[in-house]
Give the backbone structure.
Amino acid sequence: TGAGMSGSLGFGLDALQAFGLQLFAIDRPGLGRSTPHPGKTLTTWADDVSHLVSGQRLRDTVAVGFSQGAPFALALAGAGLVDAVAVVAGQDEFPAVRGLLQPDVAAMVTAAETDPDGFEATIAGAATADWLWSLILDMSAGHDRELYTGALGAAYRRSLDEGFAAGAAGYARDL
């Protein structure tokens, strides 16, 4: 899932049975119903998911990473847990495109680089689902904003509310 979201925002649910697929939309640590993991890294995420894959005896697995979930999906591939990955609207490597970012976002990137622990603590103490929703809408192009405020909007917003249900620590750690 994307930034600050729970796993409830599924996709293609009506097609899963026709293709013989199951969808596991996992809440990352500290998001949704998942307990926090203050030392979470992409490697510990892959380790956690390996327990699901082996426990459920999953085969022919694929991962989809949406937005901020893209690095986590790619980490599963790097760990050999999935056979393929699709990245949907993947988050850019922000330091590489700093000059293209809105000033507020560029400042966040700089803060994360210069004081990662302080940045994480600041975000954990301040971010909310409302704040992230406003940020997403404010930074989106018109056609994306129409999607977010239209049919997709209610489900997206619910996923954000669920993602922040236990606070912002999980979102802050992801950043």
Summary: Residues 42-55 form the longest helix (14 residues). The CA atoms of residues 50 and 56 lie 10 Å apart. The chain has a mean pLDDT of 92.
